[in-house]
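Notes to self after the Tuesday call (sharing in case useful).
The group wants a holo model before anyone commits to mutagenesis around the pocket. I volunteered. Ligand is fe (iii) ion. Logging inputs and output together so the record is complete.
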Amino acid sequence: MTASRIAEAEGTDCLRIFLAAMTELVGRTEDEDCLLREGKPLLAALVARDDWLPAAAATPDSQHYQQHLLHCDPLERFSVVSFVWGPGQATPIHDHGVWGLVGMLRGAESCRNYVWHEGSLAPVGSHLLRAGQVLSLSPRHGDLHAVANAHSDRTSISVHVYGANIGAVARSVFDPATGARKPFVSGYANSDIPNIWDRSEAVRRG
Amino acid sequence: MTASRIAEAEGTDCLRIFLAAMTELVGRTEDEDCLLREGKPLLAALVARDDWLPAAAATPDSQHYQQHLLHCDPLERFSVVSFVWGPGQATPIHDHGVWGLVGMLRGAESCRNYVWHEGSLAPVGSHLLRAGQVLSLSPRHGDLHAVANAHSDRTSISVHVYGANIGAVARSVFDPATGARKPFVSGYANSDIPNIWDRSEAVRRG
Ligand SMILES: [Fe+3]
Ligand SMILES: [Fe+3]
Ligand SMILES: [Mg+2]
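Result:
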């Protein structure tokens, strides 16, 4: 079982095992239900522990939430980001356009879901995502939400997997009062990705 | 043809197209001859132009040649590095253990090949690799060589593709006089990899 290998790995090894398993998965199927069903326990194993995220990908900004790229599949079949919330930071209502898995690594976030109702955006419930929990998103089932750090006094961090190079997806944000749509392409906060592939010390130790 | 897409792409796009094509290739075959045969024209297209290597991966060190990781496949089926030579820098005689493609991006390097002969290492010819040229390596055909910057007054850079996470491969270096073997695991010079996946500006421009 890959999930138990992720659970038992040393430090950053768990992220490498996770990325290997995701790469194997997207090479085997394009079926969204299968990707979400098989990806979810992998991400759950990854966010069940909080000893592996490189410090550079865990740093909040004083003004805005930060989306750090951890890995992009070269065929853009999936990407993995850390989402770092400073105290009280929040997103507007937004869509995703592709499947997603959100795993809470540290702290908590509150999510409010929306649907279109008679030309307006209507809230349809909200929930708290706590450390260790994972939720899935699909445009087929409605993927409009607004998310916020549930804490006003500390950083929260979630790890997201999306079915594309998410920073380059043409998406939308919405005005809650009018439903007006604005184009949104997130990009990434980081111009450098932590090099998690240098396993040379472990190989030298044998 | 992917090679012509690499040739015609804008700036760093050519590296993304190359990595996508290599990912597709290792997903399709494990046959070494096929990997080398199909990989070679892709790398040739990439090193036919010198407008795409991120500056951080093109910086020499004053003392030693530098191997910068540009991309590691999460299943470790291949990795791509830039090899940056300061003036006059050189490697010892070494092996690789996996297939490799070496493409000369900037400047030139001189390669001297070796074979085992009656318990000693014997040189079997040397050649110059000039900008735009690509050579292939295979342990099946003998892969012992010593390489040096062909220039004593400037930086040279080659781009290498290997059939593994090359920084973590247990390899060997050899004493040319005695043939004595020493274990060698290269690691990587860089703790951060340039994030080449932020295509958001281009998507916003439409
Ligand atoms: Fe979201
Ligand atoms: Fe070599
Ligand atoms: Mg850096």
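Two things stood out.
The interface with chain B takes residues 16, 19-20, 22-24, 27, 56, 69, 71-76, 79, 165, 167-170, 183, 185-188, 190-195, 197-204 of chain A (CB under 8 Å).
The two ends of chain A are 24 Å apart (CA to CA).
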